[in-house]
Design a protein that fits this description.
It is built from 4 helices and no strands. It has helices spanning 2-31, 36-40, 47-59, 61-67. It is elongated, with a radius of gyration of 20 Å.
């Protein structure tokens, strides 16, 4: 009984911890100067490649490609 109570308590405490981590990472990406792509791109990347990466990121195709492996409806594997 004590182990069950301990486990449930830990699981309930996990929820606010995960939410706090989510909010901190979300707001840090919004507060930092520049955009996330500029922070990830190597300083040695050519200007042409940098512009290409920026166009790709802004077009939405990078996001679509990242989530295109997900099923359209849950359960359709």
């Amino acid at each position: 009984m004590r182990l069950l109570r301990y486990t449930l308590r830990r699981l309930l405490l996990l929820i606010p911890v995960l939410l706090a981590a989510l909010f901190v990472t979300f707001f840090l990406t919004r507060i930092l100067p520049g955009n996330p792509l500029q922070r990830v791109i190597s300083p040695y990347t050519s200007e042409e490649r940098r512009a290409e990466m920026m166009r790709e990121a802004l077009s939405g195709s990078a996001l679509l490609r990242a989530v295109s492996v997900l099923p359209a409806r849950p359960g359709n594997g």
